[in-house]
Amino acid sequence: MNDPDIPLPSQTGLLARWTSLQTAWLLFAPPAVTVGLNWVLARLTERQPGTPALPLVPVSVPSGVMDLVWPVVVAVIVLVVAVLLMRRLGWRRVMPVIGVFWLLLWLGGSAALLHRHLNEQGLFLHDATALGTTAPGPASVNAQVLSSLFIRASLRSMGGTELVLQVPGLNAPYRLLLEDPEATQIKAGDTLALQFSPGRFSGLFVTDWQVAMRKTPAPPAALQ
Questions:
Q1: Can you tell me whether residue 124 is helix, strand or coil?
Q2: Pairwise CA distance, residues 146 & 91, whole Å
Q3: Using N-to-C axis directions, what is the helix angle for 91-120 and 65-89, rounded to 10°?
Q4: Longest CA–CA separation in the chain, Å
Q5: Alpha carbons 51 and 81: distance in angstroms, whole number
Q6: Hey, what long-range contacts does 36-42 have (CB within 8 A, 24 or more apart)?
Q7: What's the pLDDT tens digit per position in 63-113?
Q8: Radius of gyration, alpha carbons of the chain
Q9: What is the three-class DSSP state of 71?
Q10: What's the pTM?
Q11: Of these four, 93, 119, 201, 221, which has the most CB atoms within 10 Å of its CB?
């Protein structure tokens, strides 16, 4: 039985010098770097006064069936191509390519985390504002609430109230997730006074919000 650390006669170059220890480093080191970077950035954010500003996310409406299907189609094509290459060239020749792709995948994730942190740096929502006790300044904009949906906490999100807003000056509706328990009282038709600021690189973030006007409920119909 061959030792995995002893190169086979057919192996040459980099593959001949590759060991199981290096394979373990390639598998586990990139995810560890990404997780560690995420932890460090989270600790740096927690040291800032207040809470991070709330991102305004445009509501994407699929223009057709292909907008929903194309991610699945691309994933299937990539998987089929990878299997065909592995069968044609052999897994020993394909593994370096898969290793490079794996490394670039996690490096891209780390770069995305750093980009998000720098993009939101300096944008914070004061605790008093998050409770709705501080009135927005004169630069606030009144946004109409189109819909309100309560989202339960999960592994991916802390949950809260997701609002779909029509913001003056912005063409498409935007989503805003509020974790404040008071936000559950916001209903469609209400008006929010918002202050928002652009990120350092991209995106819009709410730095202050308050309910400016609540929709007046319609009077009950008179009994005949």
A1: strand
A2: 53
A3: 140
A4: 96
A5: 45
A6: 37/110, 37/113, 37/114, 38/113, 41/113, 41/114, 41/117
A7: 556 666 777 887 788 778 877 877 787 777 777 778 888 899 999 999 999
A8: 25
A9: helix
A10: 0.70
A11: 119
